[in-house]
Write a structure and sequence with these properties.
The protein is an alpha/beta fold. It starts with a helix and ends in a 10-residue tail after the last helix.
Length: about 525
Amino acid sequence: MKQHLAGTIGNTFSCNKVDPEVRLKIKRSLDSNAKKSKEKKGVFDDSSSEGDDIPTQKVPSKGKRKASNGIEAFCQKDLKVTHSSQPSIRACMQNKERWKETDLAIALWFYDACIPFNACNSPYFQGAIDKIANMGLGYKHLSFHALRVNLLSDAKMHVKLIIDSMRKTWEDTGCTIMADGWTDIRQRSLINFLVYCPKGISFVKSVDASDISSTAEELCKLFCEIVEWVGPRNVVHMVTDNGANYKAAGGKLAEKYPLIFWSPCAAHCVNLIFKDVGELETVQSLAILASKVTVFVYNHKVTLTWLRKRKGWREIIRPGATRFATTFIALQSLHAHKGDLQGLVLSGEFKKYSKVQRAKEVKQIVLDEKFWDNCLVIVKIMTPLIRLLRLCDTDEKPSLAYIYEGMHRARLGIMNIFKNKKRLYTPYTDIIDRRWDLMLTKDLHATAYYLNPAFQYDQSSYCKKPEIMRGVLNVLDKVEGEEGLAILDELRIFREREKGFSRPKAIACCKTTRPGKY
């Protein structure tokens, strides 16, 4: 309509009845809109007169500085304009087309170099982009040699400075040394040493222990080297694998350094409970039946396609070869698909396999309500332990103060499922007790449970077993002199909710604030 009234040639015919003054105002409006549109695209006009459709280029006069360097040169060269008009920073940096081109360039680099997509979630990614943008035009990427040699050395020094800054925290609050043993593709026994403190986790070093991993004495010497590097008085806790040689080395370490507590890995301990439960005859037979159903579904395109068309369908989780807990997670996933699977075996699509023996077995399993009831029982039994495993295996918060309560709650949950019928729950609780008593019943875990206000101030569910107070006193026996007596008095204040512990806000946040956060 504006072009019709303004009399512009191109998309419409000109109006002969419009007033000349109105025609001029509308033409100016069109020119203004066209100029704004060009600026958004990175094209900038400096017209000599209003309404002129041909942009003119200003020639710098003598004595005036030419726009040949700085931000002016960058904008002109990069935007490929031939005039000296200065674009706004917003138009230069936030143009949608330029933004998309930049994103595509970075994406192509990711694709070509096979960089994992989650690399863009790195906290260093945006910082690197910002530094490149601040460098401006002309920055050349780093070389292979610099990345492999010089910059790697600089990064190592940077990490060393970070670890040195954490040493103060180690002195103030104490720390935990973690020894993570594993085997690489060359079958070497490696041990990674890490140090945890409230400020964070720091990697110390990795040691090839192929020649010493089987000897408790040699392992103890290696542990002592790490303890001496961190500082014996700074170390409160040492966590290692659950192997017999590691257990013996941990005992020798505790004898040499009486103030250091040793314990095996809690996550590994819970995983071994899953292993023992999975070896029970009833659980094994149930897992075999569940596996037959899952394998048949995923080995036949017709059945899988039928299921994937179901509303809200999510893939069935299948057991992993190295994680014992995945067997129970797979049973839980299969039970969640009960309705879909029963609908599948009763559908017309499944009749195509009516003469196949495995299809007959699958149909019989899926329509057997006893099978689903047994799945549900096993899922309910193991759910508290799965939660505990996730808690122990996460980096979100320290798990030491929650391990004892988690194991205690899991045991009570199993007893409640079987309505306290000892004959039914004993096979499961015996496994938990055996692993717990032999591996993870440590004074430090009992003390952490006692000092967690979320449990101490909830008397309805607080465990009052004598072993808890015994563990607290055993820990305090290692604190010498008047400091130990002062701690005993502070424990009474904490338990009785006196002084600062009696404040309403302190009590209100006892279950939401992690122990040791403040």
